[in-house]
Design goal:
The protein has 292 residues and is of the alpha/beta class. It has 9 helices and 7 strands. 45% of the residues lie in helices and 13% in strands. The longest helix has 24 residues, at 108-131. It is globular and about 50 Å long.
Length: 292
Amino acid sequence: MSKNTTVVITGATSGLGQLVAVELGKRGCFDLVLTARSRERAEATRKQIELVSPSAKVDFFYGDLSVLKDVKRIGDEIAAAYSNIDVLLNNAGIHAFEQRVTPEGFPEMVAINYLSPWLLTYTLKPCLQNVGKARVVNVASEASRRHGVLKLPEDLTDTTAFTARGSSPIYGKTKLLNIMFTAELARRWSDTGISVNALNPGFNVTGLGRELWFAPLLERLLKILHLGDPRRGADIITRLIVNPEYHKKTGGYFNVGTGKSIQPVSPGGDPKIQQKLWKVTEDLLEQKGFLP
């Protein structure tokens, strides 16, 4: 990557996003544009990056990614400050163990894991297009294989209560939506020079488990057993950002470790369903006033 490569990372103050930000900071050729909810956690992340790269350029934009009004504002603020964006990493995600409804009436997991990256990517398109060879990288998951039954457009606004046990299919469904969004976006942006790819980061002990009261104990145990090392997930993300081979590919879904292509679970690979997802998402966001 060339000097002054601008990378936007969501969810950069913990877990995989923070690890990737620190790794890119080490390389010394990236301007890091990071989103955060907490200024305290943002400053802690800035200090971690500056420890490995004292001259790193780190810029934070603040907001709640469960609130699409904030997502649109953040996108507009970033676009005003950075006319050229080389990489957008849609990393922020949550596995909630109970249903919560956002102030705008969306199910929280769908809002954060799917609608937020959709809207941010849409908002930053001109900045990505200005570069000529930009990349969009979406963090998906093989949890998508346990997605239950996909219903469109109902799933985008379904606020039915669920238990901790019932949360897994909902989380998996949001990750399936990420994979489908990636494929359709790649098709729609095929003439822009922007590559769009998704990845499976594997099982990681990260902030996704922050709602479990025993998460800190579980994290220590898994580290002792050498399981769930988030550095593996951060590695495949970094490779998709940095390695030239992935810029030559678009619409792909790649695996942790090997970096090889994965075939999405049905109906994730169906172009007609991908197109339907795009249309119902676009219609929904237009109705809510987030798109012109």
